[in-house]
């Protein structure tokens, strides 16, 4: 549709990694040039394709990192080696704190655009996963 009487068109598309709402991808085009000048995309985190998780099982913890594309969602899961229960842990990327997993043992954050290492600390346990690159879905 033609928007704002200003020569702007929008195109709305649903996609397989989208949400339950209509219009998961909205692209705005300059009516004079046909060039895209803005794009808005909504994705359901659980539907974004990931590579097999990178894991480390040591120091009493099991840590799994699910990667997506650079700048996309990055999942960090922490569980106890002994019980399999979720563990509340502090998470860092390349030594910079990014958050905590909480009682569900999971943290979602943003994947860096370059190689990185994930560090996890809980109690006296420290576990790293990496170095690794973001997943380049193709």
Task: Record keyword descriptors for this entry.
single chain; 138 residues; mainly beta; Immunoglobulin-like; 4-stranded antiparallel β-sheet; 49% strand; elongated
Description:
- The protein has 138 residues and is mostly beta strands.
- The protein folds into two domains: 2-44, no CATH class; 48-132, Sandwich (Immunoglobulin-like), CATH 2.60.40.
- The protein has no helices and twelve strands.
- The strands form three sheets. A four-stranded antiparallel beta sheet has the order 1-2-3-4, with no helix packed on it. Strands 5-6-7-10 form a four-stranded antiparallel beta sheet, with no helix packed on it. The chain has a four-stranded antiparallel beta sheet with strand order 9-8-11-12, with no helix packed on it.
- Strand 5 (54-58) and strand 6 (61-66) form a beta hairpin.
- It is elongated and about 60 Å long.
- The protein starts with a strand and ends in a 6-residue tail after the last strand.
- The model has no long low-confidence stretch (mean pLDDT 86).
